[in-house]
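Hi, here's the filled form for the chain we discussed.

Project: internal
Contact: R.S.
Residues: 463
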Amino acid sequence: MSAASTKAEARQRFDEGLHLFEKGDNAAALAEFRRAYELIPNVLVLFNIGLVYAAMDRPVDAVDALDKVLDAPAGLAPAQALKARQVRADQAARIAEVTVVTDKPAVIEVDGVEVGRTPLERPLRFASGAHVLSALAPGCLPARREITLAGRTTQTLTLALLPTESSNAHLTLVVPTPGTEVLVNGQRAGLTPLPTSIAVAPGAAVIELRRSGYRSAKRTIQVDEGSNGTLTFELEEDPATPASLKGRLRVTPSEAGAIVSVDSVVRPDAPTGIALVAGPHALRVERAGFLLFERQVDVGAGAETSLVASLVPTAETRAATDESNHVRHVWGGSLIAGGAAIAAGSVILAVVAGHDVTTTEATLAQQIAIEQDPNQNCWSLNPDYAFFHCGETKAADQDAVSSAKLKRDLAYAGIGLGVVVAGVGTYLLVTGKHASEGTGLSASSFGLWTDGQTNGLTFGGRF
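And the returned structure, exactly as it came back:
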């Protein structure tokens, strides 16, 4: 990729990130900002990454990003530097530190995500609130502890790992509904979607799922040592859930014919709004020829959440559409040039034909006056011959007038045809941009027709 194209993509990603951040789509904005920063590291992009982390309630990541910004603030406006210091201070006040000590080397997980291995080089940092901390070691039962942390506090947690003669099993949970609490043998293991499998001691295991507004689901399974398994749960909405704990989600896909799914359930009524239990939900929008659109959206209680799903064409679709767009531009330019030439030639013909009409009509009027005047020579010599001579001349003059008028009418028709042809060419050029973006005309056809007597131009499209 050339430097110019890299810079152009970085700018496009940054602008899209700003647009998404303003709309409240923080996860998508973060993805765009991070990609822009990968392309061209820039302090202004990093500053916005820190702000997005803060909006996503990720104070540790926000502080880390803003620390880098404040270490080298050149490129930031004074107001932006002040904003970075203020946000950094606010986020730092929400961070707690925990020192984890285990009697054996172990992998430490927080809310199902691996964060380090003991002995730790430094305390772990967490956002204030409730967390599930686990320690895993070969040949030992997993040790889990749920802790609640306040900001600006430090804590030491000691975990004893009990040996087992058998190796742990690993259980993968598939739960379409996000934000569901997972309990294993009565101990909290985290919230869905779980990033990794759950280590479970061999024997009987009780897996329970809970979320407000849904019926709890529980399953008891027998786990063999060292085994790997997958469990799928589909939560049912509790019909007794009061309306005050529900909200509405309205999803508008950018492309017609897109399939919208919420929590793995196809919802054709999504564009008009669907009632859902308040809280997080997994949104999926798909259409052939476009990249999959996936988001986790939070539906507020008693509120309506609206979202426009902007589908991005695949590389194959974009290439095919760009080729079609190129053809549209070639045809558009050719039709504009051809239409202008037809119209210009027809204008000249109309001027000449108009002059001919005026001249022939004057000649005809003069001949009619001669025919009606008995004192003119064509009647004085021989009445029979004179009548024949004058009638023949008048007929020829009338034919000349008709011929001139026909040329004039054809010239006017040519002007109209030229304007239509140029108009179609202009339409193709104007709508070509939309076609390359995957919206507007998805297919078009145009051509000339003739039946031997008349001709014209046809144009058609499919929206």
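Let me know if anything looks off before we file it.
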